[in-house]
Task: inverse folding
């Protein structure tokens, strides 16, 4: 880790001449002026100083990286696009937000929020009066084209979710992809993340892990999905509704065995709880309680045998079953995978090698 010194930081700019000083981030008149310019359709352009952002109005035409501010004539090129800021917000405790996030939320022209009522509480807490627009799973396809057009016109937008980092198991990824396709700058404003917080205190291996997110709801698809994770040696991280958490844990036990696990619930909130036990013991504890409430993160230890299975023994079993039954390799792979605690995909790949070798 490099040492932080008190040396002055030189702004990294995209043009040779120094820009004018940015507007004060918290100046009420300046913020009101930005909102009026947004409504009037005047581009708001992002410039960067010391890792923070400053927004400035350019009358008639957006600021261009190659344009000098010292008396140069405006270029005839089209307006530079605005920036989409992906802003992480608290997962529970209101103070788990960065200064940069607050500054960005105040400076942009619009905030696209998964739940405007929820986000408004946070904005009120930090005296942010930037306009809000709902952006969620049910209206993302309708909203995205309009937001992309605003970004193309030079306006900057902050994307937030109900809690944590947007676009991670969240509809925000739809807008992020659309912005990238339109060559619009997308800038992360990092902060809280439920699965990272849970992993950090889990006690399970953290050097390598798989963030699974939400599993499919339909039983057949969910079973097939979990079957493919059976032989995964890395720590598995799931998001799940409290109503479906116990059912998911039971399915994992049935398919993968009784592994070490962690349930992290209501992180950073008053009723925060972290359970570290085997899946079966956690299931017993939770089954004896009233229905769960609050956001849940489930972490499951990886398959310990996956990285050290005996390939020769596996190949012998495949060969013997194939000779005895004549069944398709796909069927044999499923049966042998269950015996070795591996994923069907891993065993099937080995079966294909066997077939190729003759």
Result:
């Amino acid at each position: 880790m490099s040492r932080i010194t008190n040396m002055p930081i030189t702004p990294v700019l995209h043009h040779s001449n120094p820009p004018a000083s940015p507007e004060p981030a918290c100046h009420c008149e300046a913020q009101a002026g930005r909102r009026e310019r947004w409504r009037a359709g005047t581009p708001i352009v992002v410039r960067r100083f010391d890792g923070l952002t400053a927004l400035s109005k350019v009358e008639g035409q957006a600021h261009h990286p190659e344009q000098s501010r010292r008396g140069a004539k405006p270029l005839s090129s089209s307006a530079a696009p605005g920036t989409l800021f992906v802003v992480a917000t608290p997962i529970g405790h209101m103070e788990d937000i960065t200064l940069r996030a607050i500054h960005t939320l105040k400076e942009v022209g619009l905030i696209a929020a998964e739940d405007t009522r929820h986000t408004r509480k946070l904005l009120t807490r930090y005296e942010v009066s930037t306009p809000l627009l709902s952006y969620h799973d049910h209206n993302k396809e309708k909203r995205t084209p309009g937001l992309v057009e605003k970004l193309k016109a030079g306006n900057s937008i902050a994307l937030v979710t109900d809690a944590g980092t947007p676009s991670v198991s969240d509809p925000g990824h739809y807008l992020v992809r659309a912005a990238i396709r339109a060559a619009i700058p997308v800038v992360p404003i990092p902060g809280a993340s439920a699965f990272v917080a849970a992993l950090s205190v889990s006690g399970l291996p953290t050097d390598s892990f798989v963030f699974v997110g939400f599993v499919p709801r339909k039983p057949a698809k969910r079973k097939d999905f979990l079957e493919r994770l059976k032989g995964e040696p890395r720590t598995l991280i799931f998001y799940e509704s409290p109503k479906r958490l116990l059912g998911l844990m039971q399915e994992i036990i049935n398919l993968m065995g009784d592994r070490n696990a962690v349930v992290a619930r209501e992180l950073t909130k008053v009723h925060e709880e972290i359970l570290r036990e085997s899946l079966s013991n956690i299931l017993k504890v939770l089954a004896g309680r009233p229905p769960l409430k609050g956001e849940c993160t489930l972490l499951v230890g990886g398959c310990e045998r996956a990285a050290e299975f005996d390939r020769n023994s596996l190949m012998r079993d495949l060969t013997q079953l194939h000779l005895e039954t004549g069944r398709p390799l796909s069927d044999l792979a499923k049966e042998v995978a269950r015996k070795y605690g591996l994923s069907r995909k891993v065993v099937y790949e080995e079966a294909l090698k066997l077939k190729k070798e003759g």
Observations:
- Confidence is low (pLDDT under 50) at residues 1-28, 38-78.
- The first helix runs from residue 28 to 40.
- The chain is about 40% helix and 15% strand.
